[in-house]
Write a structure and sequence with these properties.
The complex is a heterodimer of chains A (249) and B (259). Chain A is mainly alpha-helical and 249 residues long. Chain A contains 13 helices and no strands. Chain A has one domain. Helices cover 79% and strands 0% of the residues of chain A. In chain A, 48% of the residues are buried. Chain B has a domain of 178 residues: Rossmann fold (3-Layer(aba) Sandwich), CATH 3.40.50. With 259 residues, chain B is of the alpha/beta class. The chains are: A mainly alpha (249), B alpha/beta (259). At the A-B interface, helix 1 and helix 7 of A face helix 2, strand 6 and helix 3 of B.
Chain lengths: 249, 259
């Protein structure tokens, strides 16, 4: 029943997304701007690791896409709460967990699709990276999206207005972006900043995807990145389903 | 046969200023095939009661059975047997009527073909057949209400809960909705529990009224019984009975007192 219901909820929200093609493309606008107007500044800078600057920047932009996109996923739920759609679904026998998982699955596919578009543009700009590494990157985007969207929906379920929701998300995503080393490798900075950034899960994901784009897969970065990404996703989905099961109770 | 029975049903919300007892201790029974009106001033606990009886909110006290299933131990059983139409309805404005009806059928575990067939059937019953491919945002208030109710009837529930079903409707749509509710009761034997703060609606539509005030049942009976008991005559107005009972009008936006 969980699979049936998840597929059903996924289908509903996937159709909703397909109806607004504008939203699909708009989502990649910010990383695209970084790619076009920030990327060229880095070419020729010594970023370390003996790789091209695009191989450092693009992994960061991919995770930025996931970070900002998925963190705001809860807005959709707040709208559905105000139109009564959430309660209407909650009085049906549909699985409570599926109401979360169907949405999260839609988000994961949406952001991986946007990530593919972003990488294609990056290739045109000059990115060269091995295909397995690029695919590994998409996997990390997918896991990050699942984690953040789950937490975002959990928060949205607990608050009642966008005014309560927006500031919380903003105050978490901006420091997360700065501390994760999305834009420039943290190793360029002072030691304290590098240490501090290891307290955010995103740092490990960024390091892992950068290794993947450099074509080195059997690294400590990759191991820690995979463990953190999987652990974070498991934790977030557990929190999310718990909130969805208990909501209103 | 009793379809709903509650004993000491209660819900306390925690707020910043301390606990708020939305429903203190509610004892009521509803028989099969009845149209019961829950009447009361704003904040009396009507919506909280409906949300508890439909499993959306867990009670903080007391017990209830709905359509033979215990609310606390078998909420899934209750969901299969009851329908709920919230005041806000519950359809996505960007979705078509057909898609909402079919999705709802699938949520009640109908197969694809079954859900499509049920959507067509419901649309015919509720006068929505010509509107199936319209986006729900483009429907009139009355059409929207009929769609909301169609969604609630998808699984042919034994009990239908309607929260302020006619608020915001024009007089013609209100009358249509009253007819619809009576038809559900007469042809399908559906038990209907609705909240309202329109006294004329309570008077015209409900077989029996349960007046709720301050989270407790203040009185119950047929409209005629309440008028006799609290306003002295079966021909008195329900408004007078209500005022005698609660000391105030049912809600700020209810029909104004005659001067």
């Amino acid at each position: 029943m969980l699979l049936h219901d998840t597929a059903l909820v996924f289908g509903r929200y996937a159709r909703q997304t397909l109806r607004s093609r504008f939203q699909i493309l708009f989502g990649i606008l910010m990383p695209l701007l970084y790619l076009l107007f920030f990327g060229p500044l880095l070419t020729g800078l010594p970023l370390g690791g003996g790789v091209d600057s695009w191989q450092v920047l693009v992994p960061g932009l991919l995770l930025q896409l996931g970070l900002f996109g998925a963190s705001f996923a809860g807005f959709g739920l707040i709208i559905d709460k105000s139109t009564g759609v959430v309660e209407r679904m909650r009085v049906t026998p549909v699985s409570r967990a599926a109401l979360l998982l169907g949405r999260v699955l839609r988000d994961a596919l949406l952001f991986v699709f946007q990530a593919v578009l972003l990488v294609l543009v990056a290739v045109v700009m000059g990115l060269r990276a091995p295909l397995p590494g690029v695919l590994i990157g998409f996997l990390f985007v997918g896991l990050l999206t699942v984690s953040l969207a789950s937490l975002s929906y959990a928060l949205a379920m607990r608050v009642s207005t966008p005014q309560e929701f927006g500031p919380v998300i903003n105050s978490l995503t901006v420091p997360a972006m700065l501390l994760s080393g999305l834009m420039l490798p943290m190793t360029l900075g002072p030691k304290w900043l590098d240490v501090l950034s290891h307290f955010t899960p995103f740092r490990y994901l960024v390091d892992a995807v950068r290794d993947a784009y450099a074509g080195t897969y059997a690294t400590a970065h990759m191991l820690y990145g995979a463990l953190v990404a999987l652990g974070f996703a498991a934790l977030a989905v557990t929190v999310g389903t718990r909130v969805f099961r208990k909501a209103g109770a | 046969m009793t379809v709903i029975s509650t004993s000491g049903l209660a819900r306390t919300f925690m707020s910043r200023t301390g606990p708020v007892e939305a429903v203190r201790s509610l004892d009521m029974t509803v028989a099969a095939g009845e149209i019961v009106g829950l009447l009361g001033p704003n904040g009396a606990g009507k919506t909280t009661t409906l949300r508890m009886l439909t499993t959306l909110l867990s009670p903080t006290g007391g017990a209830a059975t709905v359509a033979g299933h215990d609310l606390a131990t078998d909420p899934a059983g209750v969901r299969e047997r009851c329908g709920y139409v919230a005041q806000s309805g519950g359809v996505d404005p960007h979705t078509t009527v057909r898609e909402e009806l079919v999705t709802q059928g699938r949520m009640y575990r109908l197969g694809r073909a079954g859900a499509v067939a049920r959507a067509t059937e419901l649309a015919a019953e509720l006068g929505l057949s010509d509107l199936l491919d319209r986006r729900t945002a483009t429907l009139s208030g009355g059409q929207r209400r009929r769609l909301d109710i169609a969604m609630g009837l998808t699984h042919r529930p034994a009990v239908l809960f309607l929260d302020e079903p006619t608020t915001g409707l024009d007089p013609g749509s209100r009358a249509d909705l009253w007819d619809l509710v009576r038809r559900l009761r007469d042809t399908d034997g559906t038990t209907v529990v609705l909240t309202t703060h329109y006294l004329d609606e309570a008077d015209a539509l409900a077989d029996r009224l349960v007046v709720v005030d301050g989270g407790l049942v203040a009185a119950e009976g047929t409209p005629a019984q309440l008028k006799t008991r609290y306003a002295g005559s079966p021909h008195a107005s329900l408004q007078d009975a209500f005022l005698a009972l609660t000391g105030r009008a049912p809600a700020a936006d209810a029909a104004p007192l005659a001067v």
